[in-house]
Amino acid sequence: MPEIxxxxxxxxxxYFDDHNxxxxxxxxxxxxxxxxVNTLVxxxxxxxxxxxxxxxxWATLHQKxxxxxxxxxxxxxxxxxxxxxx
Length: 86
Known about the structure:
By secondary structure, the chain is of the alpha+beta class. 29% of the residues lie in helices and 29% in strands. It has one domain. It is built from two helices and five strands. It is globular.
């Protein structure tokens, strides 16, 4: 699963040809959540509240890039890295 971003100990990944809804995986110290790209809601797993807040802040800034990477992943194309939070 390609890593598309890493910040503050949080790792963001996407699987190639993954199931719907469009989503990304956020990992933080052994916890993992699947987060819907469109709504930014966790639909599987969990993250600590502070980590989730950082992930949603980041995802809000990069939603178009996440949607683009999702389409690339569905087409088995290389994914683009996305800038981390400063």
